[in-house]
Design brief:
The complex is a heterodimer of chains A (about 650) and B (about 200). Chain A is an all-alpha fold and about 650 residues long. Chain A has 2 domains: about 270 residues, Up-down Bundle (Cytochrome Bc1 Complex, Chain C); about 220 residues, no CATH class. Chain A is built from 23 helices and 5 strands. In chain B, the strands form 2 sheets. Chain B has a 6-stranded antiparallel beta sheet, with no helix packed on it. The N and C termini of chain B lie far apart (about 100 Å). Chain B has 3 helices and 10 strands. Classes of the chains: A mainly alpha (about 650), B alpha+beta (about 200). At the A-B interface, helix 7, helix 8, helix 12 and helix 14 of A face strand 1, strand 2 and strand 3 of B.
Chain lengths: ~650, ~200
Amino acid sequence: MISSIIDWIDDRTGIKGLMHEALFERIPGGARWRYVWGSTLMFAFFVQAVTGICLWMSYAPSGQTAWESVYYIQHEMYGGWLLRGIHHFMAQTMVVLLALHLMQVVIDGAYRAPREFNFWIGLVLMKITLGLSLTGYLLPWDQKGYWATRVATNLAGIVPIVGPSIQKLVVGGPDYGHFTLTRFFALHVGVLPALLAMLVVPHLLLLRKHGLHAKQPLRRPEGYFWPEQVLKDAVACLAVLCVVLFLVFQPAIMGTPVGDHPGDVLGAHLDAPADRANEYSAARPEWYFLFLFQFLKLFEGMGATGELIGAIIAPGAIMGVLFLMPIIGNWNLGHRFNVLFTFVLLIGAGLLTFQALWDDRQASIAASDSALLKPLAKFADPSSDKFKQSQAFLAAVDEAGENAHRAIELARAPRGIPNTGLLSVLNEDPKTQGPRLFRRYCGSCHAHFDPATGKGVALQPSAPVDANGNPLPNPEPYAAPNLYRFASREWIAGVLDPELVTSVHYFGATKHKDGEMAAFVKGDLKPQEFAADIKLAVIALSAEAGLPAQRQLDLEDASKIKEGQAKLKSLGCVDCHKFQGDGELGTYPDLTGYGSYEWLKGMIANPEHPRFYPEGNDRMPKFADSDKAEDNTLSAQNLDLIVRWLRGEWYEATGH
Amino acid sequence: MDDMKIGPVQGKAESQRSAVAAKSAASAPPEPRRDFLTKAAAVVTGGAITACPVAAGVAVIIDPLMRTSGEAKFVRVAASEAVPNDGVPRQFPVIVESRDDAWTRYVNEAIGAVIMRRDPSSGKVIAWTATCPHAGCFVGYQSDKKQFFCPCHNSAFDMDGKVLSGPPPRDLDALEVEEKDGSILVKFQEFIVGVHDKVVKT
């Protein structure tokens, strides 16, 4: 029955002959492992097409939806992390397979007549695959892809004459936006795969026309593609798939626990959404483009010419030599030149990649305990500039990791992702914006770091400099208090500590160092004698702030707060400060509501307001004292964000 | 006779074969050689039907080339007191009332960043775009070295924006500054990066 159906079809199509021709391709010298690379690449392309089309079904390219849809695939959709993980890691594996295939073809001299055209088609296929990598890197619209791809498209702009137009066409306008995504997407899922498929057909047909280029000497009698070579190819593809799956599951294999959301741990990483206002300085291209990135650094100090050579001319010349290989191969020693060239190229790329990784990561390698990395540690010089740059890179990577984590936390928050995209949520998030705003507006005087660990968003501010940027010989003290956990019990206890009050964490570098408060703490307060009273006063004053982190403590200590409020009076605080019904305004800050949202907002807006330092303000600017919004240094929104950040007032996911 | 008898039979087979040959020759007319007009018409028609959709597509693809951003305007970037007199540089976002990205209008959006410092002797504000002229990353201020630094390719600039080290083809791009009524206004422009000359992006 089945055979008669096959015969019926065969009469009309000749399918038996085609199958026979496809399967019983002669292989001189029999099946060998070295012939598997082409098949593994076909397999990789097949996997990319299948996973890519499935990703496409859930992806929406636009400024407000690209990151959001990828987030949904990766972190919420059933198995989305697996699909995206396979697509992501297979893309990387494909680049390795390309290099292996190219090496095998060059070493075997398989580019020689009559196979020149097939070699050229192969090189074009390689460029298309790299193009797919480049365009795919942008599509998640996360910080990493956005900033790394910007560098790549900016390089297109340096091509003489047509460069700026090419750049504008690719980017879809003068700057990155919706059209960059839609264009990259069209290239990634339409133009480039279509070109690839169209060229793979002649690549395979020509392979069949010329027959397989057998490696001499032939070891065994002639064999056939089916089944020996097919089995070898299938085993190789299985190995490729295993590598990819290993990469997807690597964190779990290495012991990271996987919770309810496997996509948070497994598969491809997703950074915070692209934000054109906040550059991700540690953005790097995918690892297989790192050698080009590093190569550019070799042309330091040569200006625009060096840039043109490094980014356009040298890579173009290398591609040119690759294209000429079939012709060079005909010359005396030509084949040896080709093999040598390929090896030099791969080793050079390998060294450049290593150099790039080393430059960025030497600080972490130096601190590593791994037996593999330890021997390298002695090459790192902690006093060198490169080491400091590496530390800055790693800090930026850490910060990006925190931002990514926060973005996912907010995407999952009850508010969800609004139709304006997650970036609009991040822009209103004190935890995300606080450190940026603090560094910009407060960080040149105030520090914000944990004195115990030395870690924080703003370390001690820099010393002032003269017109040429040299430090002034006798700089005036230039550091205002460290605002880390401002108005918390620990912070207030520090102000009342004779050892700490004139340290740089408090008044040490301001004129208040010689003021009445410092004198009072060091003199009349008598911390030994009144230790218990001071402790209660601290609890009471800190409760005025109503800090979210202390809410539970404040509730438990309600009676102590009551006692402490009385102590604030008996200790003499109200001699200079106003507190509730006692004391007067006019010299020193109001202690009523000290550190509360309203208090902080008022203080930052206008420190010279009667409620704060009408006379004794030491250089703190009025950030928002005008009724006209445009005259204020800080906008109302930024002021709100800074205050809420200082107070630790932001959404936190619970139950983790 | 035998010969004679065989002959017509052979002859019949031959004539049958030649008839088949003649028939097939008649069914396949000779390849055309001279009908230039037909060829020209086929090529023109084929070309036209191909060109129409391609042209429609290309027109839309090159749409961005047909648009130029208008002349840059002065934008208020900061209050005067936000740039200190001691020469320490500060970085500020450049916020415009609105920015259009294709179909989306963003309101009060940061379109870039500027670095400003006040010359301590003359009191004049100098402003640069924070975009590195090399590959378009953002430069930052390194207070310990008193220099501007771009982390992408380790480029450094001195306090006057001059290249100290690294691959940049030109110095930091200075912007036009106006200071009036307690505000600092900057004519914010973007420039093509990676080339020697400072050319405004349009």
